[in-house]
Amino acid sequence: MAQRLALRQLLSLAPRTLPPQAPVARHSRAFSTSANCKSTFNVQDGSDFQDRVVNNPKPVVVDFHAQWCGPCKILGPRLEKMVAKQEGKVLMAKVDIDDHTDLAIEYEVSAVPTVLAMKNGDVVDKFVGIKDEDQLEAFLKKLIGA
User: How far apart are CA 134 and CA 123, in angstroms?
Assistant: First the structure.
């Protein structure tokens, strides 16, 4: 009660009008995503895979992975980083084998992580297991043709 009374007295002493302030500059800033952010995508279904991977004019790296796979959790971010460094020359599709078993069977994925290199709808290279950054860079350069 005493605190409320003290607060009322304090507020009654404060001026009721605010002093004039300088106008606030309002900046509008455009937000855009870079090509690097769009270089990696999750496959939603078979037709999405057909449209975005098989029919893509750009080379595509397909990462078959699973949520429960320890090596996949290491390889995935490493591969994404290496694909982003290619500045849009190659794309990366991520396929969860538990969600898309039909694609895993079609592309003969027997272990994860399995990574396919696809060009013009054809598998041109493949590896199974984890790789270091130098090996991934060589894999991507071979796919791009650089």
Answer: 21
User: Contact, 90 vs 58, CB < 8 A?
Assistant: yes
Kindly name the residue from 53, 61, 62, 69 that is annotated as catalytic.
69
Task: Give the chain's length.
Answer: 146
Is 72 designated active site?
yes
State the maximum Cα–Cα separation within the chain, in Å, rounded to a whole number: 81
pTM (2 d.p.): 0.74
Q: Which residues of 108-125 are buried (b: 16+ CB within 10 A; e: fewer)?
A: ebeebbbbbbbbeeeeee
Catalytic residue among 43, 61, 72, 83: 72
Tokens linked to 8: 């009322």
**Within 10 A of 84 (CB to CB), how many other CB atoms are there?**
18
Dump pLDDT digits (tens) for 32-73.
Answer: 344 445 799 999 999 999 999 999 999 999 999 999 999 999
Is 37 annotated as catalytic? no
Assign 78 to helix, strand or coil.
Answer: helix
